[in-house]
Amino acid sequence: MDFELAREIMVDSQIRPNDVTDPRIVSAFLRTPREVFVPNARKGVAYSELEITTSPGRALWIARDTAKLIKMAEIQPTDVVLVVGAGAGYEAALISHLADTVIALEETAQLVDSMSQRFAAIGVDRAAPVEGPLARGLPGQAPFDVIYVAGMIELLPDAWAQQLREGGRLAAVMADAGGMGRGKVFTKAGGAVSAREGFDCCPPRFAAFDRKPSFSF
């Protein structure tokens, strides 16, 4: 399979037509081999308009949703970015072409080691995988210019907002009570955090950040 051609087709059919035309973002998608981040059995559909499970509880979104959330985050070349729930590392690899430094946070040594191997194999040198609980963020390396959440969530941990630099942005897809999601960016200013809404989508979710069901008779 010609993965380079498939990558170009993905950009031309899934990303540019969905109002993501920033040359820096387009270039990041063209330079990042998505097939490296999917299981061997799914490499043939790596560039299809599909969500692809990469490990239990982790998945690649369709390219359109990833591109639109990255666009909303307004990542700058000098930014330090924390990717929460980095999974296989695809989003962190993409963002490494846009930012100064990317820290890819995951909860298990196995995921961190696998990410390190993938990054080394494709020459990603601005993204560093780190192990730790997702809900805590990474306080020891805060503050961050951008926090990018790689799964749909219902609850936004206070720890993440506290780790934003003044003027920093937190990009996430927030699920509503009906299970649909909306891309949002939370910006920190004067110690407070305000939200800006973007696009509708329904990517794979992080179940750990679901609201707990309330008891009723």
Model description:
By secondary structure, this protein is an alpha/beta fold. It has a single domain, classed as 3-Layer(aba) Sandwich (Rossmann fold), CATH 3.40.50.150. The chain has 6 helices and 9 strands. The chain has helices at residues 3-15, 23-31, 63-73, 90-96, 109-122, 158-162; strands spanning 52-55, 58-60, 80-84, 101-106, 127-131, 144-149, 164-175, 181-189, 192-201. Strand 6 (144-149), helix 6 and strand 7 form a beta-alpha-beta unit. Helix 1 packs across helix 3. The longest helix has 14 residues, at 109-122. The chain is globular. The termini are far apart.
| Overall residue-averaged pLDDT value | 94
- Distance from first to last alpha carbon: 57 Å
CATH superfamily: Vaccinia Virus protein VP39
In angstroms, what is the radius of gyration? 16 Å
User: Might you state the CATH topology name?
Assistant: Rossmann fold
The secondary-structure class comes to alpha/beta
Beta fraction: 25-35%
The spatial strand order of the largest sheet comes to 5-4-3-6-7-8-9
How would a textbook summarize the main sheet?
7 strands, mixed
- SSE order: HHEEHEHEHEEHEEE
How much helicity do the residues have?
Answer: 25-40%
CATH architecture type: 3-Layer(aba) Sandwich
